[in-house]
C-alpha cells in the first residue's frame, strides 16, 4: 500500500524532515514484515 | 532496612521491631539524598505518606491487620490517576490538572494498607523520547548516572531503596525494561489480569499494568492484591521455593538473533545451564516469527497511540517534547488496512506461539533488554526504532513475562525475561523465585 500522507504535510518548525523520513521508513519496514507473514499463509 | 523483603518488613511490623513510620522516613531520606541527581520522582507526597504511616502504626498497635502490604510504601508512575493529585503524564500539555478518581489498581493497594509515597517519572505519555524541552529531566541509572534507566524511573527508585515497589504501565516493555536496566524485578502480568482503568493509555490493545520490586518474591506478594477477581487464576498456598523447585520444570531457551549483545547471550546461556543443573529439562527453540510479532506490535502501538494524540499533536505540536512528537508521528504514515492486517497477524502468530512454544514448556527464557543500560547520549531520539525489541512481543501475545537480574556486563546489570503460560502468573513467579535462589551467589 502506498503512503498517502506526505512528509510535507507537517510544519517544519516542529517536525524535522529527516525524522519524518525515518518515520516513513519505519512504517514501510513494519508493513513489509507483516505482509511477508500474510504471503506465507 | 531498605533491603528487607516485603515478607520481612511485614513480619517486623507485626512483631513490633519496626514501624511503618520508620520505613516511610527511611524512604523519604533516600529520596532526599539521591533523587536530585537521579530524577526518579515527579512528585513526593511526604506529608501524606507520613500521616498514612502514623495510621498504619496505630493499626498495628491495635492488631488491625489488612494483609501483607499493610504499612508498605509504594509509588506509581505519573500516568496513573490518584484522586486529588495531578496526573502530569510527564507532559507540559496536561498542566497540573487534578484527577477526580483513583485508578482501581491504586485503590486496591491503599485498601490493603499500602502507603502511597509519590509519583514516579515516565517518558512523556509513556512513549516520548526525553530531551532538553521535556517537562522533566530524564531519569539516570543508579549504577552509572551517564546511562539510561528506562522509560520510567520505577526501576531506579526500587534499586536504590527509595521505595520498596512501584506500579508502572507496560505497553511495549517500560516496566520490564526499567527493571532490567537497574537490576531489579519487573513483571508484565497476563493480559487482562490487572486493570488498566485510570492509567492514561498508550495503546489500549497492548497496555498492561506492570509491577517493579526488588525480587520476584516481593512481586508474588503484590500481584494477588492487584488481580481482577474475575480474571484471577487460583493462587495455591506455597512455601517459599528453593532452587530445588526448578527440578522437572520444562524450560525453553530461544536462540537469540545475531544482534543480541554478547554479554546478554552469555548470561542467557548461563541461566539455561543453571536451570538444567538444578534439574530443569531444557529445550532450545527457534522462534523465527518473533520479529513479525514485533512488527505487528509496532503498527498496533503506533496507530493506537497516534489515534489518542492526533488532534492535539497536529494542532499544538509545540506542547509536546520534540522527541515525543517525532515518536508519535509514525502513526500518521500507517493506514487502517495496515492496522487491520497487523491485528490479524498478531492474533495468528500469538496462537502459533501458544501451540508451538508455550504448550510444550513452563517457562521461556529470553533477553529483557539488549545488554546493559545504554549511555543517555546514545539513546535513540525521535522515532521508536528498536525500542521494546525483546519485550513488545509478549504485550502482543498477552503472556506474562518477568524481567529478573541474570548477571552483569562491565559492572552493569543484565535482565532476562522469563515468559510463562497465559494466566499462569503465579506459577511464573514461583519459577522466577526458584531461579533467584539458584543464582543467589551468582555475581556475573
List keywords for this structure.
A: 41 residues; B: 444 residues; alpha/beta; 11-stranded mixed sheet; two-stranded antiparallel ribbon; 15% strand
Strand content of chain A: under 5%
The succession of helices and strands of chain A, N to C, reads H
Indicate the radius of gyration of chain B in whole angstroms: 21 Å
Q: State the major sheet of chain A.
A: none
- Strand percentage of chain B lies at 15-25%
Radius of gyration of chain A: 13 Å
N-to-C order of helices and strands of chain B: HHEHEHEEEHEHEEHEHEHHHEHEEH
Describe what this molecule looks like in 3D.
The complex is a heterodimer of chains A (41) and B (444). By secondary structure, chain A is mainly α. Chain A contains one helix and no strands. By secondary structure, chain B is α/β, with parallel strands linked by helices. Chain B has an eleven-stranded mixed β-sheet with strand order 1-3-2-6-8-7-12-13-11-9-10, sandwiched between helices. Chain B has a two-stranded antiparallel ribbon with strand order 4-5. In chain B, helix 2 runs antiparallel to helix 3, helix 7 runs antiparallel to helix 13 and helix 9 packs antiparallel against helix 11. Chain B is globular. Chains A and B meet through helix 1 of A and helix 9, helix 10 and helix 11 of B.
Amino acid at each position: 500500500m502506498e503512503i498517502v500522507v506526505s512528509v510535507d504535510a507537517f510544519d517544519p518548525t516542529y517536525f524535522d524532515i529527516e525524522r519524518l523520513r525515518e518515520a516513513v521508513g519505519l512504517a514501510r519496514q513494519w508493513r513489509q514484515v507483516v505482509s511477508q507473514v500474510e504471503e506465507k499463509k | 532496612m531498605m533491603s528487607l523483603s516485603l515478607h520481612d518488613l511485614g513480619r517486623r511490623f507485626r512483631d513490633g521491631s519496626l514501624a511503618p513510620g520508620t520505613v516511610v522516613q527511611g524512604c523519604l531520606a533516600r529520596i532526599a539524598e539521591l533523587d536530585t541527581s537521579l530524577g526518579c520522582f515527579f512528585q513526593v507526597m511526604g506529608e501524606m505518606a507520613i500521616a498514612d504511616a502514623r495510621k498504619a502504626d496505630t493499626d498495628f498497635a491495635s492488631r488491625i491487620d489488612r494483609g501483607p502490604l499493610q504499612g508498605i510504601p509504594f509509588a506509581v508512575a505519573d500516568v496513573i490517576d490518584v484522586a486529588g493529585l495531578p496526573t502530569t503524564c510527564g507532559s507540559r500539555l496536561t498542566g497540573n490538572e487534578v484527577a477526580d478518581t483513583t485508578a482501581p489498581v491504586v485503590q486496591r493497594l491503599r485498601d490493603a494498607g499500602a502507603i502511597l509515597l509519590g509519583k514516579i517519572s515516565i517518558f512523556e505519555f509513556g512513549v516520548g523520547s526525553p530531551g532538553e524541552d521535556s517537562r522533566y529531566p530524564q531519569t539516570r541509572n543508579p549504577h552509572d548516572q551517564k546511562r539510561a534507566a528506562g522509560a520510567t524511573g520505577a526501576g531506579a527508585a526500587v534499586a536504590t531503596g527509595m521505595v520498596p515497589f512501584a506500579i508502572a504501565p507496560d505497553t511495549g516493555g517500560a516496566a520490564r525494561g526499567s527493571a532490567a536496566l537497574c537490576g531489579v524485578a519487573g513483571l508484565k502480568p497476563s493480559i487482562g489480569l490487572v486493570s488498566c482503568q485510570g492509567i492514561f493509555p498508550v495503546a489500549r490493545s497492548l497496555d498492561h499494568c506492570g509491577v517493579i520490586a526488588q525480587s520476584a518474591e516481593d512481586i508474588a506478594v503484590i500481584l494477588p492484591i492487584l488481580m481482577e477477581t474475575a480474571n484471577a487464576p487460583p493462587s495455591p498456598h506455597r512455601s517459599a521455593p528453593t532452587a530445588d523447585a526448578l527440578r522437572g520444570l520444562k524450560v525453553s531457551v530461544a536462540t537469540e538473533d545475531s544482534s543480541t549483545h554478547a554479554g546478554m547471550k552469555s548470561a542467557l546461556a548461563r541461566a539455561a545451564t543453571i536451570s538444567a543443573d538444578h534439574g530443569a529439562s531444557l529445550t532450545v527453540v527457534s522462534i523465527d516469527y518473533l520479529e513479525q510479532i514485533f512488527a505487528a506490535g509496532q503498527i498496533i502501538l503506533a496507530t493506537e497511540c497516534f489515534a489518542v494524540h492526533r488532534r492535539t499533536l497536529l494542532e499544538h505540536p509545540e506542547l509536546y517534547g520534540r522527541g515525543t512528537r517525532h515518536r508519535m508521528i509514525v502513526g500518521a504514515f500507517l493506514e487502517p488496512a495496515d492496522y487491520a492486517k497487523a491485528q490479524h497477524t498478531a492474533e495468528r502468530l500469538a496462537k502459533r506461539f501458544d501451540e508451538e512454544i508455550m504448550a510444550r514448556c513452563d517457562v521461556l527464557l529470553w533477553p529483557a533488554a539488549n545488554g546493559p543500560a545504554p549511555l543517555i547520549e546514545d539513546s535513540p531520539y525521535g522515532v521508536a526504532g528498536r525500542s521494546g525489541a525483546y519485550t513488545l512481543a509478549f504485550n502482543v501475545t498477552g503472556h506474562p513475562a518477568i524481567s529478573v537480574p541474570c548477571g552483569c556486563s562491565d559492572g552493569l546489570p543484565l535482565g532476562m525475561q522469563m515468559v510463562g503460560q497465559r494466566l499462569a502468573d503465579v506459577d511464573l513467579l514461583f519459577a522466577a523465585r526458584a531461579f533467584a535462589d539458584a543464582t543467589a551467589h551468582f555475581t556475573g
